[in-house]
Structure formats: structure tokens, C-alpha cells
Amino acid sequence: MPQIAPRDLAIDDEEGDLVVDNGDLVLTYDLESIRQDVRARLRFFAGEWFLNTDEGVPYFENVLVKNPDQSLLRTVFRDIILAARGVTGVPEIKLDYDGPRRRLTVGFRASTDLGLLEDTVALSA
User: Fold this and answer.
1) Which CATH code, of 3.30.200.20, 3.40.720.10, 3.10.450.40, 3.80.10.10, is assigned to 33-124?
2) CA angle 42, 98, 44 (to 5 degrees)
3) Which residue, 12, 31, 38, 121, shows the most beta carbons closer than 10 Å to its own?
């Protein structure tokens, strides 16, 4: 079976730093690279990047508001996940908000050009 070309540099989920192994940068392949791209997009606030202030999740406008519209949130997060390279569909998305801990957990199943991707991402303010 031929090796698939790497798609990205690996990023540590906990710290957000590049992964280095024995002095070498680690590369991601296959579904792992798509998962990493989706996770990065879900953590990216709209307006955060000065070169494109429209890019990112509209957390201040739609998510971190009193009584957010759940239907709108599903659409926002589905669109963000669909924007990741390789994602072709999002048949399932589940949002779970923990008010006292100020944590939103986004669980999803996504169809990709490399197969099915299932993941859960915890986001906290």
C-alpha cells in the first residue's frame, strides 16, 4: 500500500505546540490531519486573524451570549467543520453546554474523503 503524503505538521492537543520527536517535527497523515484541522478551526475566534477578520467561529456574536439559539449554533459549528479540507459532510453534531464550568463540548461525526471521522472537542471560556 503506498504511503499517503503528509498533510500538516502535528500539533499537541493540550498545549497547542508543534510536536517534536528527537529534534524532528512530526507530520500528520490521513484522518489525523483532518481531525487536527477541524479542532484548530473550532478553537479559532472570528476576528482573531487580522488578515481575514471574517474567518473563524463567531463566538462573541453567537456562542458566548445569553440564551444562544441552539439551532443557529448547530449551523455555525456544522459550517466550521465543513470548511475543513477533506470534510464532505457532517451527518451528526451534538452540543453540550456546562454553564458552571463555562465549557461547551462539540461532538460530531463527519464524512471525509478518507472515511468517517468522529471526535469530541471541549471548548472553554
Assistant:
1) 3.10.450.40
2) 15
3) 38
pLDDT at 103: 85
Amino acid in position 32 = E
In the chain (125 residues long), the average pLDDT of successive 10-residue segments reads 66 87 91 93 91 90 86 95 95 90 91 94 83
Task: With CA atoms as reference, report the closest residue to 123 among 40, 43, 35, 44.
Answer: 43
pTM of the model: 0.85
Separation of alpha carbons 2 and 101, rounded Å: 46
Q: Helix or strand or coil: residue 106?
A: strand
User: What whole-number distance in Å separates Cα of residue 16 and Cα of residue 25?
Assistant: 14
